[in-house]
Queue: 3 jobs
Job 1
Amino acid sequence: MILAPTRPGETSRVVVSAFLRAGLAASFLLASSGAGYYYGVYAPAQDEQQESARVFEKTVAYAHKRAAQERSAAEEREVEVRRAAQRAAAGERYQACLSNASANHDTSWAAECERIAERSIQARADCLSKSKLPQGYCDAAYRTRDASPNCVLPVAIATNLDFGLNRARRRCLQEREAALQ
């Protein structure tokens, strides 16, 4: 819009005023377009970039936490496997100890049976050779004893052997319990 000058010298003022208004409008448009660009384009892109960084950090933190949990679970499984192996080995040693104790008991029992049978045979032979007693008397006094490993032993000897077996079994049990701790 063109304004007609009403007074002399006013034309330049009107032109300057129009330029000033146009400059002000242009600067306002320029400033508002910068603010519009900042709030419409730049700030949302920054927010999106920051949100992506936060999501990435959370993902990395979760991955580290999950890896630590998996390591811990693997260590726990390894410890449990070791404990199970120790329990199994302790059980095997316990069974071997019991078998050894029973074998020693059976061997001692058989040796006592043989020793008593040999002593009975020797006593009968001594009876027949030294005292000139009749054979029937020596046979009755020194009867032949069973020399097999399953013979019946006198109570005192059998009790002593059984006590030794029970003591060996308790020792085996103590060793197993010590190994399991």
Job 2
Amino acid sequence: MYTATVNGVRASWVVRPNDTAIGVQNSGSSNNDSGVADVVIANEQKFRDQVRNRRLLQSAQQLQFGSWHSTINGVPVVAVIVNGNTRFG
């Protein structure tokens, strides 16, 4: 799995064993906020209702295998591998 972020918009891709990738882009939320919760929501159902279900998702642009280059809203990016040390936000 690879990810890249630009101007508050994140794209993530899963790279398949045949070296192809499929991705999704999170363009924020349906109420035009940044998509980032301002408070910690302790209840999992509340989180789904108030944050996760409002995200605006679309297909991500193609990820170039090996160089990991792509674009987010026309801006060139280089995706990084997601691992146990990856931190978002």
Job 3
Amino acid sequence: MPSTSRIPRSALVLGWLGVLPFAALALLAVTGGVLPNGSAMSGLVQYGLIILSFMGGAQWGLAMRAASSDDSFEGWRLTISVLPALAAFGLSFLPAGSALLGLAGAFVALLGYDVLAARAGMAPAWYPALRLQLTGAVVVCLLVAAGFGLR
């Protein structure tokens, strides 16, 4: 992986564009907003589930790129990469407030794994800095909305 710690502009812009729906839906959720097909709270949960699964897919790609001849270690990395999608599936059955809390926890846990993956050379050096920014913003949005949804 490249050793530069400077976040590429495209990754930074696209990452923050991905945060915008979290912020917009959280704002709508705390103000009681509705979407054409349901509540903003439900929309926030759905978007969070999608993005959590997407982030697991990113780990799958990193694991494949870093594949070694050690099948047990490679299998471990691939197993971890499918956990976000499985967590998202399980969280989809919970009430919105609980699902938002679960999503926040899952994003934080995945951030921890992403940092370890970068330190192990599986991801670019800039990846943890980007993930910290984006995850911080996403978790704040999820927790604010959950706080209003659990009252």
